[in-house]
Design goal:
Helix content: 40-55%
Organism: Diacronema lutheri (Unicellular marine alga)
Mean pLDDT: 84
Pfam families: Pkinase
GO molecular function: ATP binding; protein serine/threonine kinase activity
CATH superfamily of the largest domain: Transferase(Phosphotransferase) domain 1
CATH architecture of the largest domain: Orthogonal Bundle
Family: Belongs to the protein kinase superfamily.
Radius of gyration: 22 Å
Keywords: ATP-binding, Kinase, Nucleotide-binding, Serine/threonine-protein kinase, Transferase
Low-confidence stretches: 1-12, 301-319
Oligomer: single chain
Length: 331
């Protein structure tokens, strides 16, 4: 079924690779590092368990189709797809430089110019994607990874699990994304387009400049109300020394009306991106980001444990149901 769905033939799967350490996992997939035996080159392999895919088959098909159609220096590249009887293996470019915020916290030295380079790289990737009618829909720090540990390493956009191909009069209505980074039009549930990615860029830019998010409430209804109203500010002392050009770009991106929001092309033409970002150290930003990053990672770990427990409970309930059916048949 899935072999036909994904449109790839059966063939040599992982025998050409030396599979190594675990890199991450999700609901139906695990990511491992792997070395190609023929040349020693390393990759990341996303190993998808077909038995767990279920209703996500169409979304996986879309993800694979999109990844096959794109090639950009700031986007993680799909190298190959290997289909097996029980698993689908996606061989991906391996990025080893770490997540965006982790890297900033580790490096110590950080300026507005560094932030401008990051937003420029991300906007370059989005300009490319949006021109092809592709919207990512889940831009967040976890999906921005450095290619390597090198000081001048480019940033790479990853995880196209929620990406969608749009065009013409097609309007998306599925509510998706990550709270805190999601655009107001998604929450309004009235349809949306590629502009949602640029709102997320605005949120990421805001955090890059001060170290904490523009919208932050513990309760989801309050958070979503704040986002839908576009209510944020530039609190002192964190924003006191941030340039007017940087603030201007934030204001051009965090616009509730998607038609008035900056596009990726407009971001790339903004003077702050074009070399006018100051090179003064953002020490307050780094200190604030350390705290925000620690809370973010703790919350992600807690959510992972809860998800694992839910899956375990579902398995236990299924087993109990099977035992009940077996017992009933014996009566």
């Amino acid at each position: 079924m899935l072999g036909k769905l994904f449109g790839v033939g059966r063939g040599a799967a992982l025998k050409d690779y030396e599979v190594g350490k675990h890199l991450g996992s999700g609901n139906f997939a695990e990511v491992k590092e792997a070395t190609r035996k023929s040349d020693g080159q390393t990759f990341a392999i996303k190993i998808i368990d077909k038995s767990k895919v279920g209703d996500m088959a169409d979304a996986l098909q879309t993800e694979i189709d999109i990844l096959r159609s794109i090639s950009h220096p700031n986007i993680i590249k799909l190298i190959a797809v290997h289909d097996e009887k029980k698993k689908m293996n996606l061989v991906m470019e391996l990025a080893t430089g770490g997540e965006l915020f982790d890297r900033i916290v580790e490096r110590g030295s950080y300026t507005e110019a560094d932030a401008a380079t990051l937003i420029g790289d991300l906007s370059n990737a989005l300009f490319y994607l949006h021109a092809k009618g592709i919207v990512h829909r889940d831009l967040k720090p976890e999906n921005l990874i450095y290619a390597s540990k090198a000081p001048d390493s480019p940033i790479k956009l990853a995880d196209f699990g929620l990406a969608k191909l749009v065009g013409g009069a097609i309007v998306m209505q599925t509510a998706c994304g990550t709270p805190g980074y999601v655009a107001p039009e998604i929450l309004a549930n009235k349809g949306y387009g590629i502009e949602v990615d640029m709102w997320s860029v605005g949120v990421i830019l805001y955090i890059l400049l001060c170290g904490f998010p523009p919208f932050y409430e513990e309760e989801m209804p309050a958070l979503f109300k704040q986002i839908m109203s576009g209510r944020y500010d530039f609190p002192s002392p964190w924003w006191d020394n941030i340039s007017a050009d940087a603030k201007d770009l934030v204001k051009k991106l965090l616009v509730v009306d998607p038609k008035k929001r900056f596009t990726a092309e407009q971001v790339l033409k903004h003077k702050w991106i074009q070399g006018h970002a100051p090179k003064t150290q953002l020490n307050l930003t780094v200190d604030a980001m350390k705290k925000f990053n620690a809370r973010r990672k703790l919350k992600r770990a807690a959510m992972g444990i809860l998800a694992k427990n839910r899956v375990q409970r579902m398995v236990e309930l299924a087993q109990e149901a099977d035992r009940a059916v077996t017992a009933a048949k014996k009566r």
